[in-house]
Amino acid sequence: MSTTYAWLLGGAAAVVLVGMLSLRLVQQYERGVVFRFGRVLDKVREPGLRVLVPIADRMAKVSTRVVVLAVPAQGAITRDNVTVKVDAAVYFRVVDPAKAIVNVEDYKHAVSQVAQTSLRTVIGRADLDTLLSDRERISTELKTVIDAPTEQPWGVRIELVELKDISLPEQMTRSMSRQAEAERERRARVIAADGERQASEQLAAAAGRMSATPGALQLRLLQTVADVAAEKNSTLVMPFPVELLRFFEDRSGFSQREAPHPADRTVPPIPLPREPDHLWLRSPGAADAPDPLGRADDALGSVRTAAHDDAGTDPTV
Question: Who's near 307: CB < 8 A, 6+ residues apart?
Fold first, then answer.
């Protein structure tokens, strides 16, 4: 009786052991590749509790989730001979578990190596401006280059490739900074000049309209004073009224119109002093002269006549 119980207990244990060896649990994000006596089966086991043939079958589980692979920084030379270092991130997943297990030993390491070599190749075919400004096109081209040798032979599909960082030499960085600064300064000057032009046009239009109404200038002056007074300053400097300037301008113009020209004024005659008669008698040789007073009067008369002719007056007056 005890021997029978022992056999039954041993048989139950064997059944439990065989059941444990035959049952496999496949997660939702996994797929099972079954090898029977070393040969892979065509049917891939789906998620759930799966039964295998004990001793004959061996199952390898492959994750189908997206894997993020960081590509180390790769130094390369662009088409315009600029040395750069670029690192990227590759997103891929397994679409054929059997190929990923059978055709490649470590598909993650293989994808990493292909991504590094493809990154250097793509950078060498692009110039620096394209690499910096058109990253989307570079990423698309890089995805195509990496996906070509991996999807069909290895069963790995590249979902996305993104450039993370582009490191430039320090000298090139400074040159680009100066270029960007100069471009920004040029834009600022153009914007400021355009603003000045628009402001000048508006000011010219406002001045033309205000000049037609003299009171508008005074109202504008008062408005300016009100704006300055709103700042609560202790000292307020009043500008000189424009109307008062116009008043003085009109008065000065009227005075200039009424003032006669200097050339129109009458020049009064210049009287000449008459020398006494006895001075002629004191000159040398006066005793020998027959008529000294007569000659002196004739000479003085001729001088007076010439002076009055120049002045425009009658010498007899």
Answer: 269, 270, 272
Domain contains 36:
yes
Q: Tens digit of pLDDT for each residue in 241-265?
A: 655 566 566 666 555 555 455 555 5
Return the pLDDT at 67. Answer: 92
Whether 266 is in a domain gets the answer no
The SS3 assignment for 94 reads strand
Residues spanned by the domain of 72: 67-168
Q: What is the number of alpha carbons within 13 Å of residue 199 lying toward its C-beta?
A: 6
- Judged on CB neighbours under 10 Å (0-12, 13-18, 19+), 259 is exposed
- Note whether 181 and 154 are same-domain residues: no
Residues 191-209 as b or e (16 or more Cβ within 10 Å = b) = eeeeeeeeeeeeeeeeeee
For strands 83-94 and 67-77, give the pairing. antiparallel
Residue with token string 């996906």: 147
* Residue among 260, 266, 214, 267 nearest 241 (CA): 214
**CATH number of the domain to which 107 belongs:** 3.30.479.30
- Please tell me the distance from the alpha carbon of residue 18 to that of residue 34, in angstroms, as a whole number: 18
Does some domain include residue 5? Answer: no
Could you identify the residue written with the tokens 């408005």? 223
In a domain, 6, yes or no: no
Q: Are residues 113 and 22 part of one domain?
A: no
**Nearest-angstrom CA–CA distance, 216 and 220:** 6
Reported pTM: 0.55
Helix (H) or strand (E) holding 18: helix 2-22
pLDDT of 114? 92
How many domains is the chain partitioned into structurally? 5
